[in-house]
Request: fold
Amino acid sequence: TVHHIDHDHSNNPEDGSNWEMLCLYCHDHEHSKYTEADLYGSTVVAGEDAQKSVGEAKYNPFADLKAMMNKK
Reply:
Protein backbone atom coordinates (compact mmCIF):
# COMPACT_ATOMS: atom_id res chain seq x y z
CA THR A 1 0.00 0.00 0.00
CA VAL A 2 1.32 3.46 -0.87
CA HIS A 3 1.49 5.61 2.26
CA HIS A 4 1.95 9.39 2.42
CA ILE A 5 4.80 9.96 4.87
CA ASP A 6 3.47 13.31 6.09
CA HIS A 7 -0.16 12.04 6.04
CA ASP A 8 -1.09 14.83 3.61
CA HIS A 9 -2.86 13.11 0.72
CA SER A 10 -2.64 16.27 -1.38
CA ASN A 11 1.19 16.34 -1.12
CA ASN A 12 2.14 14.30 -4.19
CA PRO A 13 5.55 15.43 -5.49
CA GLU A 14 6.55 14.11 -8.91
CA ASP A 15 9.62 12.37 -7.47
CA GLY A 16 7.47 10.38 -5.01
CA SER A 17 9.49 11.59 -2.03
CA ASN A 18 6.37 11.75 0.18
CA TRP A 19 5.41 8.13 -0.44
CA GLU A 20 6.54 4.86 1.04
CA MET A 21 5.42 1.32 0.33
CA LEU A 22 3.97 -0.46 3.35
CA CYS A 23 2.34 -3.83 3.72
CA LEU A 24 -1.36 -3.63 4.52
CA TYR A 25 -0.78 -4.40 8.22
CA CYS A 26 1.90 -1.70 8.58
CA HIS A 27 -0.24 0.84 6.72
CA ASP A 28 -3.20 0.18 9.02
CA HIS A 29 -0.91 0.41 12.05
CA GLU A 30 0.53 3.72 10.86
CA HIS A 31 -2.95 5.24 10.65
CA SER A 32 -4.20 3.60 13.86
CA LYS A 33 -1.59 5.58 15.83
CA TYR A 34 -3.65 8.71 15.21
CA THR A 35 -6.88 7.03 16.30
CA GLU A 36 -5.18 5.77 19.47
CA ALA A 37 -3.73 9.21 20.15
CA ASP A 38 -7.23 10.69 19.96
CA LEU A 39 -8.68 7.98 22.20
CA TYR A 40 -5.95 7.89 24.84
CA GLY A 41 -4.61 11.44 24.78
CA SER A 42 -1.08 10.81 23.55
CA THR A 43 0.59 12.65 20.68
CA VAL A 44 1.92 11.38 17.35
CA VAL A 45 4.44 13.13 15.11
CA ALA A 46 4.36 12.26 11.41
CA GLY A 47 7.38 11.90 9.20
CA GLU A 48 10.94 10.69 9.39
CA ASP A 49 11.88 12.82 12.42
CA ALA A 50 9.26 11.16 14.61
CA GLN A 51 11.57 8.34 15.75
CA LYS A 52 14.77 10.34 16.36
CA SER A 53 14.07 10.78 20.07
CA VAL A 54 13.56 7.03 20.55
CA GLY A 55 17.23 6.22 20.13
CA GLU A 56 19.05 3.23 18.76
CA ALA A 57 18.18 -0.29 19.87
CA LYS A 58 21.06 -1.79 21.86
CA TYR A 59 19.67 -5.16 22.99
CA ASN A 60 20.28 -8.16 20.75
CA PRO A 61 18.43 -11.27 21.96
CA PHE A 62 20.52 -13.45 19.63
CA ALA A 63 23.95 -12.12 20.62
CA ASP A 64 24.94 -15.32 22.46
CA LEU A 65 22.88 -17.74 20.37
CA LYS A 66 25.89 -19.69 19.09
CA ALA A 67 27.26 -20.13 22.62
CA MET A 68 23.84 -21.22 23.90
CA MET A 69 23.51 -23.80 21.13
CA ASN A 70 26.97 -25.22 21.86
CA LYS A 71 26.21 -25.84 25.56
CA LYS A 72 26.15 -29.51 26.43
Remarks:
- The mean pLDDT is 80.
- Residues 12 and 18 are 7 Å apart (CA to CA).
- Residues 24-40 form the longest helix (17 residues).
- The helical segments are 24-40, 65-70.
